[in-house]
Amino acid sequence: xxxxxxxxxxxxxANANGRFATLDVRPHLDARRxxxxxxxxxxxxxxxxTREGENLAVKCFTREVSDLxxxxxxxxxxxxxxxxxxxxxxxxLPAEVFVTSSVAxxxxxxxxxxxWVEGRGLGTIVQILCLRENATALAGLTRAWSRLxxxxxxxxxxxxxxxxxxxxxxxxxxxxxxxxDSMYLPELRGLPSTMLGGxxxxxxxxxxxHFDATIDHFSMLVILLSLRALxxxxxxxxxxxxxxxxxxxxxxxxxxxxxxxLRQWAASPDFHVRDxxxxxxxxxxxxxxxxxxxxxxxxxxAKIDAAPAKPPAKGLFSFFS
Length: 321
Hints:
Blueprint: H1 6-14, E1 25-27, E2 37-39, E3 43-50, E4 55-61, H2 68-81, E5 91-99, E6 107-115, E7 120-121, H3 122-131, H4 135-155, E8 167-169, E9 175-177, H5 217-232, H6 235-240, H7 250-254, H8 260-265, H9 271-285, H10 294-301, H11 317-320
Antiparallel strand pairs: 1-3, 2-3, 3-4, 4-6, 5-6, 7-8, 8-9
Helix pairs in contact: 4-5, 4-10, 5-9
């Protein structure tokens, strides 16, 4: 069944009275008196205010997601009960907002709600830190990213679309993941992926059939390596960032041996940049999307500082990993 356009939802949200089945909300309005929202591939997220004055994110779907109720029932349960510091509690509300549309039936449509998370996107924070050449803060961000990734790995879950736009950094430096449409949980085993994620962060051979705890592996390493390289070469962001990536792009993964960045990083004075660039090159060439030694890489990343690292002493690397 076709779903309403984002402008259809925008009209409904602008006239919120009587439109919602259970929610008592009004929209945040911008300077033009239009609802504040963010548009994505599958949905639009509106910033709303509850009767109690709390900010609420209301996600309205513009493209059909297979098994949506089942997926979000599992995700909502995880976010509410897992005590994971990197996710936000949410609710899936079927038949919640009434929308009149020129392309879809006039009907009540499902929404997902969660607290509106204040913070800046990871990409924005990285830009600020690179502009300031703040190596210490970039190293701290790299450690924080490694801890987030280790937490997901140890739980056997995956976000499914890790990229700079889907990670928020709070004023306290805490990281939060947003956009759970493609999240993998063990109880969803057997379903296909809803999407393949941003191409500048994903394994070049990832397909819809890949839907398990390994789907985040490659993007975890892409972001980790990018943050570490930028710690020593912040000017790379100005030269390689295009808004849809950090510094690496899909072409670096499809032709890793021809990648100027990966070749340059293979000779970096920092051991971790050299080592992780080698692992990423190997992973990009591999037929599978999982990275078997990723946990060891992330453990080493959790202890880094802003100084170039030397290779570990022989015989100690496996012990400390």
